[in-house]
Design goal:
The chain has 2 domains: 128 residues, Rossmann fold; 270 residues, no CATH class. The chain is built from 17 helices and 12 strands. The model has no long low-confidence stretch (mean pLDDT 90). The strands form 3 sheets. The chain has a 5-stranded parallel beta sheet with strand order 2-3-4-1-5. Strands 8-9-10-11-12 form a 5-stranded mixed beta sheet, with helices on one face. Strands 6-7 form a two-stranded antiparallel sheet. Helix 9 packs across helix 15. Strand 3, helix 5 and strand 4 form a beta-alpha-beta unit. The chain is α/β, with parallel strands linked by helices.
């Protein structure tokens, strides 16, 4: 079964523009499937995959023959696994410019699973010639469209209310139904193949395959590692630090990497879509944290596989970190600009959202909202115009004065 992705509508808007379309993101997130779905609605098309060594060698060594066979005769061309092409961006620039010179109207699509390779091999040569789209694992709306499409309009309305800073209350019965799917989503994540799996054991097996076959192999190949046990220890250390400030000393001891090597590998883990780092919000360097990032994973299911913890929500000791990780990715997928906030005395709020018009919204994530966080008062002293909100699963505060959102309303 195909799960429709939001990115489809964005891409369809640019089918008639000359720019190359690049779709990048983690392996198994659905890049090839999504572009193939788009291509199923198009005519006069060519689809090639650089996993095919003959086609790849032709592109690398005989670009004119590649143009003649796979490009010039078609209106739409899709090159999958583009990151395998040596000097790929330089050759693609040649094709683009040559087509323009010869007035050949060919729309080219490329996809790849490594932001390192795509950016180095392609984008630096294609300034002004390319539109880049990120495709991650399913967000919660996409997941819900597959699990129970009837609930989708309810979640969309809740998210619209969140955007307008309206208190969200959909009623306990409806919320209970949505939360059933929400819990499944935050425990097993949003990889399409995981969502399509029939049962829990199959979901776990798919996650195991994604991690071992795709992520570890790809990172190991990019870094040129002969063995990956140190890398695995580093990744597990990061998974255990989700939602916390990165401790470089702790990670260095755990992984046995030197500090320069550690920093290099942390960057690669972000570029290969395993984990990402959130920087602090600050305006007063004397009072606020200004450098240390917090770590989150691109998919909660993958993170839970790494720490071997698929316990249900009500029996997890790390539920706060899991919920934070969910919100981090929802903001990332919706291209929201955000940071975290922390003072040198330890007062902290989970996320600061930068809204249109220069307004900021501080959001604190809670599993069970009982009382107003003390940090609300602290941040108001520094930023009187800051808007404040609680995002939680349960609301037992009975405080109607605070803006409160169910976590599925976050986007």
């Amino acid at each position: 079964m195909y799960i429709k992705r939001k990115i489809e509508d964005k891409i369809f808007k640019y089918l008639k523009t000359p720019e190359i379309i690049a779709v990048i993101g983690p392996r198994q997130a659905g890049k090839s499937t999504t572009i193939n779905e788009i291509f199923s609605h198009l005519e006069n098309k060519s689809i090639v995959n650089f996993n095919d060594k003959k086609i790849l060698n032709l592109f690398v060594n005989d670009i004119e023959s590649f143009r003649e066979i796979y490009v010039n005769k078609f209106s739409y061309v899709f090159i999958d696994e583009f990151q395998y092409a040596k000097n790929g961006g330089k050759n693609l620039k040649y094709i683009f410019d040559k087509n323009k010179e010869e007035n050949l109207k060919v729309k080219i699509f490329i996809s790849g699973s490594s932001a390192v390779d795509i950016s180095v091999q392609a984008i630096k040569y294609l300034v002004g010639r390319i539109f880049v789209f990120n495709l991650f694992a399913l967000d919660f709306e996409e997941f819900l469209s597959y699990r129970d499409a009837n609930l989708l309009s309810l979640v969309k309305k809740s998210r619209a209310d969140f955007a307008q800073l309206k208190r969200v209350d959909i009623g306990s019965d409806a919320e209970e139904i949505v939360l059933k799917y929400f819990y499944e989503y935050i425990i097993y994540g949003g990889y399409p193949r995981v969502c399509l799996a029939e049962g829990i054991e199959e979901k776990k097996e798919v996650l195991k395959n994604i991690y071992n076959t795709y992520f570890l192999r790809e990172v190991r190949d990019i870094l040129g590692l002969i063995e990956d046990f140190k890398l695995e220890k580093l990744i597990k250390g990061l998974a255990l630090q989700v939602g916390n400030l990165i401790s470089y000393d702790e990670l260095g001891v755990l992984s046995e990497y030197s500090f320069p090597t550690l920093k290099k590998y942390l960057n690669f883990l972000e570029k290969t879509y395993i984990c990402s780092y959130l920087r602090p919000f600050f305006k007063n360097k004397r009072l606020e944290i200004v450098k240390n990032p917090k770590v989150y994973f691109f998919d909660s299911g993958l993170r839970n596989y790494i720490v071997d913890d698929f316990r249900p929500v009500d029996s997890r000791g790390d539920i706060g970190a899991v919920l934070e990780n969910y919100v981090f990715m929802e903001f990332t997928k919706s291209e929201t600009r955000f940071n975290y906030w922390r003072t040198k005395q330890g007062q902290e709020l989970d996320f600061i959202i930068h809204r249109e018009g220069g307004q900021e919204l501080a959001v604190e994530i809670k599993n069970n909202y009982k009382e107003t966080p003390k940090a609300f008062g602290n941040i108001k002293k520094l930023y009187p115009d800051m808007n404040l909100a609680i995002a939680s699963v349960y609301d037992n505060s009975k405080n109607q004065n605070n803006l409160r959102y169910p976590l599925f309303a976050i986007s």
